[in-house]
Amino acid sequence: MRGWICCWVQVRKNSTTLFVGIIFAALLILGVNFHTSSELTPRQEILDVHSPQRNMSETVKSFRSCQPKRNVMFLKTHKTASSTILNLLYRFGEKHGLTFALPTHYQFGYPILFSSRRVKGFLQRDVPHYNIMCNHMRFNRPEVQKVMPADTFYFSILRNPVALAESSYSYYKSVAPSFKRSVNFDAFIANPWRYYLPQVHNNHYARNLLWFDFGFNHNANFSLQVAQAGVEEIQQSFHLILLAEYFDQSMVLLRDALCWSLDDIVTFRLNFRSNDTRRRLSAKQEERLKQWNAMDWYLYQSFNKTFWQRVERFGKSRMDQEVAILQARQKELMDLCLLQGGKPAEASQILDRGVRPFQFGQAKILGYNLNLNLSLSNKERCLRMIMPELQYKDLLDSKQFPRAEGVPKQALAKEGIRPQSNVHLGASGSVVNKRDHVIQKIDLSKQKLRRSP
């Protein structure tokens, strides 16, 4: 009797397995899409490297049918690893033939609140629809909604305001009057009000920069009620807020939310500075910066909490597994694409002028050199992964508006942009535009510090 029961259980087990296998095969035959899209161009991944990690990643996907999102708005905040995210959005859009809401120059009139008229071709209706918006702006939801489709996915990224303030001082010391007046960062931290004047233009870089980028008044005295209202407004406008300190986990969450492939969200770190320009802060200095940037600190704490709640829902073990896969694929591509396995290089050491990052302020912005023995197809893909944002924007602009003339010098002068080089092709075939190295002097003299209704 016991043997008959065991036999019956084994038959039931085998039958169940066979039934599940038949159902799964049927779904594949019918074209049910598990984390891919039949509407988009089939994924064309770099093929020179055999990737067990990439194959493994296919098994980690949740068995839910989803379509990759193609309408995306990214609020590119300052000094938050946002240039790296911009690159992956540029690559995805270019790969799938999507249209970009591009600024006439490099920013959407920043630091003035965003206006739809700042989008190239929008008023003239030169572009029937836009899929991706991701360049610097000061967020203004009603105006953004005029440009982007109703089903657009909105996301942004934050960084600990203490680290952000240190980075901002290094990068914007020659721009922000508050920073220019101080001898060094230590002096500024010790007594910021000695150097800070609320009404002086460009001082938004010196206080509550994140709060400002989201469209709020960075000079407002801290109030819990005001801070909570701001957070609630952001939660209503954005589907996902990422954290720069947990970039890999952020990319996993972004991939899950957008239903994109692994290679779509693999990135090389861009627009980052060398360690010799970074400075360590004391606990007392960190506390002073939290108080000085109280709105930013509240914003960061709030979305740090929701970030980890989202990770909890995603599953910690699943997160750990997908982060490991992401990091393995990144290393694989760095070994394939980059000299010395991706060792960063100073701008003067980068052989191809077309991929030298823009240098600004006290910071030394690093970049990469491509391997010399790449196939043509891999060279093209690897080049896109290291292309700085100014050069990549110019490339997309030239493809989307092929008949457009270059920006007149008078227009550049009017916006305070000084061109420093001419158009040519870099050694890797990259585009170097006459506006690739610019200094944008922002005029806030006419800006209202309080948010427009």
TrEMBL record:
Q: Which SUPFAM superfamilies match?
A: P-loop containing nucleoside triphosphate hydrolases
- InterPro entries linked: Gal-3-0_sulfotransfrase, P-loop_NTPase
Give the GO molecular function terms.
Answer: galactosylceramide sulfotransferase activity
Q: Which residues cross the membrane?
A: 18-36
Membrane topology summary: Single-pass type II membrane protein
Cell compartment(s), UniProt: Golgi apparatus membrane
Task: Report keywords, A-Z.
Answer: Glycoprotein, Golgi apparatus, Membrane, Signal-anchor, Transferase, Transmembrane, Transmembrane helix
Q: What is this protein called in UniProt?
A: Galactose-3-O-sulfotransferase 4
Q: Which organism is it from?
A: Erpetoichthys calabaricus
Q: What is the lineage of its organism?
A: Eukaryota, Metazoa, Chordata, Craniata, Vertebrata
